[in-house]
Every structure is written in structure tokens, then in C-alpha cells.
Amino acid sequence: MSTLRVDRVSVTLLERTVVRDVSLSVPAGSWVTLVGPNGAGKSTLLRAIAGTVEHSGRVEIDGTAPAGLRSRGRARLVAVVPQEPTRPDGMTVLDYVLLGRTPYVPYLGTESAEDLAVAGELLDTLELRDIATRAVTSLSGGEFQRAVLARALAQQAPVLLLDEPTSSLDLGHAQQVLELVDRLRADRGLTVVSALHDLTTAGQFADHLMLLVDGEVAAQGPAAEVLTEKLISTHYGARVRVLTDQDGGVVVVPLRTRGCAPADATPLPLDVRRG
Ligand SMILES: Nc1ncnc2c1ncn2[C@@H]1O[C@H](COP(=O)(O)OP(=O)(O)OP(=O)(O)O)[C@@H](O)[C@H]1O
User: The ABC transporter domain covers which part of the protein (predicted)?
Assistant: First the structure.
């Protein structure tokens, strides 16, 4: 169980500040999701948290700054599912998932029975067992995305960073993957920070949302406070209707612009109330 603290973090790339003065506290076992338009700085902030991009300010996981650690130590502390992971040539799915065990394998040593057991369990959980011997270069986008998550979970790090982890997944697999992460959060106290474009999904799975715009925090709080028609219109230039489902969850419905105001839009299903 680990608490993540981000204190006044800024990142400048090619002389442009793309993340400015962001602070965030993520209690152990909770899930924070970054939302915001393209180029807002979500991926860069995740990279700063992971300690893989130079930044000012401080990132700490239980008092330790990932940026100050060597790669093995960092990988034991924080696991990352990047937005565009590379596919190593000629590597099987099993070997790819086992890469996640690298921080536990001794120098010049081989994987232990425990490493193989962890990887095997993840192959089953993420429905990769039948394709374990296939080359990762041959997988569909969704199959590979599940392999990337399996590799990250194999690290058994207390903090998991997810950058658009479901962008290639069909609806069913997307829900299964996010439910799995949520289970790990609830059962093992995994601390999760994700970046998601799907605002409904973002609201359903996170305890706290942070809306980034031009590298700065434009709003943050529970989904109902961040996912408002006004904020989405202002910052995304999108016309949406925000609804509340039966469980109190926020549902963001994009509206096609046909020259009518949101109030004139087609009536919605009876089981969905206006938020
Ligand atoms: N290596 C880099 N060098 C220079 N600029 C960069 C670099 N990486 C990202 N940027 C710029 O930083 C800004 C933030 O990019 P970032 O990828 O963090 O945004 P994002 O919110 O994740 O966007 P998206 O939703 O499109 O994935 C963008 O303007 C991007 O062009």
C-alpha cells in the first residue's frame, strides 16, 4: 500500500512548459484519472510521476522519489502502461510478460518458479494463455494491449500508471481490464493513476478526476464536479449532455451538432436521469 504525492511538478520540453505546477495526492489504494484534451500534458505528467522525464517539483511514493532510483528499483515501485509501447521483434507473449519480472531476476540469473507462476497467472487473467507462444508483433492491437498490462502487473509494483490502457480494446475487454485493475486496487491496495479520453469510463472508475488543460489543472474533484457540460464545452469545445445513471455514476453523451440546443435533443432512455 503506497501513497503517491506530486508536489508542484512542472515539465519543460523543447523550451515549452507542457506541465505547470501540478500537485496531487493519491492515497494508497485509490484511483485518480487525468482527463483533458489532446496535448494537455497527461502523458507527460505520467512520465514525470514515473521518473522518466526531467521535471521540477517533487514526486514521492512513500517518501521515495522514483526519479532518484535506478531502473530496477524504480520498476519495483511504479509500473507503467504507456500509450504507445514498442513491440520487441521476435519476442513471444510469455517472454514479454516475463519482462515485468526483470527487477526481481538476479543479474546473470534466470526467472524463478515464482516469476513463472506470476506470469502464468496473468496470462490466464488477461486471456493470453492461448497465444502465449505467439510473437508480440503478430498480435492484434487489443491482444497486445492486454499483454502490456500483464507485463506491467507482473512488476507487482504498488503504484500503477495507465496511459490510455483501453484505447484498442473492445467494450467487453475494456470493462474486464478496468474491473481487474479496480479489484487489485480494492484487494491489494494498488494505487492507480490513469489518463483516459473516455469521460464516462473515467468517471466510473476513478475516485478523483483531474482535468488538465494546457499543462495546468483546470478542475479536479469527484466526477460530478469535473464532468460538467460547461467545463467540457469550455475545454474540449464539445457539445455533450451529462446524465446520472441509477447508481449515481456520471454518463457523458456526445451530442451531434445539428443546429439544435442541448435542451432540444432527442429524449433519452427512461432509465437515465438528467444530471
Ligand atoms: N518529447 C517531446 N518533445 C517536445 N514536446 C513534446 C514531447 N512530448 C510531448 N510534447 C508536447 O507536450 C505537450 C503535451 O503532450 P502529452 O503527450 O503529455 O499530452 P496528452 O495530454 O497526453 O495528449 P494526448 O491526449 O493527445 O495523448 C504536447 O504539446 C506535445 O506536443
Answer: 4-239
